[in-house]
Amino acid sequence: MTEKKKIWLSSPHMGGTEQKYVKDAFDSNWIAPLGPNVDGFEDDLCKFTGIKHAAALSSGTGALHLALIHFGVKAGDVVLCQSMTFSASANPIVYQGAVPVFIDSEADTWNMSPKFLEQAIRDSLDGKLKVDGKLLPGKKPKAIVPVHLYGMPARMDEIMALAEKYDIPVIEDAAESLGSLYHGKHTGTIGKMGILSFNGNKIITTSGGGALLSDDGEIIEYARFLATQARDTAPHYQHSQIGYNYRMSNVLAGIGRGQMEVLGQRVAKHREIFESYRNFFAEKAKMGYELAFQEEEPGMFSNRWLSTLLIDPMNNKGITRETLRLALAKDNIESRPLWKPMHLQPVFSKYPFLGNGVAQHLFDHGLCLPSGSNLVEDDFERIFKVLVKIFS
Ligand SMILES: *Cc1c(COP(=O)(O)O)cnc(C)c1O
Question: Least buried of 45, 211, 310, 376, by fewest C-beta within 10 Å?
Fold first, then answer.
């Protein structure tokens, strides 16, 4: 018996014009980490998000690394980071030898809790944070990294108010939230800097890539300089600081230009997919099931990159997220537990964490459902058939 076609969580979905831009790159021989597609893609990102400046880079991780370098994050410095996220939000902090301090989520958006953020700032100032059992000297954190998880905006009003009160810059990790809005502003444009990712599974992709956003032109100029090996102006190769090779290829930026033409459609489709799951489970509430979702509040607009839900067996007749995940897997349908929080990761376990168990609860009971904009009617028939069977 042949296996049924695999249904992926979120797979690349080309719009159709990408190859035209890639062909332009070949025809003009701009096969380099600079060129007209890179410039064009940066312009497209600025126009779409309303940010003044953008640098197209080789990854979102690289973008965050450059942002931390810009703020002078060095060995022993403290950077406050959302715990409930993908490891790429925290890795660059450790690249710099700095100390990531992980902040719990709050229950509605699943993003950084302003309450624990403030406690972390105070504990850092007062010298109350410990790494490996040893107290850190009291110091002001160098940056705050909130994440807009699965597209849902974090509570930016509260986070920005704390950032201002204590004078700490915010770097928004908007890797998953291109197209999401917070009180009319695009996520990634609210803090001092924002980062985007165009990895293969994100809402649009360049196969791999990222961008750094800021309204401050000098920041973006400096990021471009660092991203191209920090070459001083001279006829020979001259360097007065350490550089990186983080620029985006002009070939891949061509894919990005094509993808930007369909980004609006992609967001609409992802939101429609989320609505169909939510409507399904709203019906199931009448049968005594009670599932929870990331909830938009007034002023929040999520791109719903991934549709996610919580299945607490206490409210669902003993059904767990593993019951559903395994049933889907049996039908060759991919689903995945939510990100495992950073403070629970072996590699980060020695670093401080402030919270009260929300991220842990999300990890224990949360599941990401297939959310690709390229899924077809047949795919959804298969998915909902499994859902109906489990929640009967
Ligand atoms: C994907 C992702 C990143 C990293 O982006 P890359 O382009 O893969 O380096 C960072 N943060 C979050 C939350 C992500 O999901």
Answer: 376
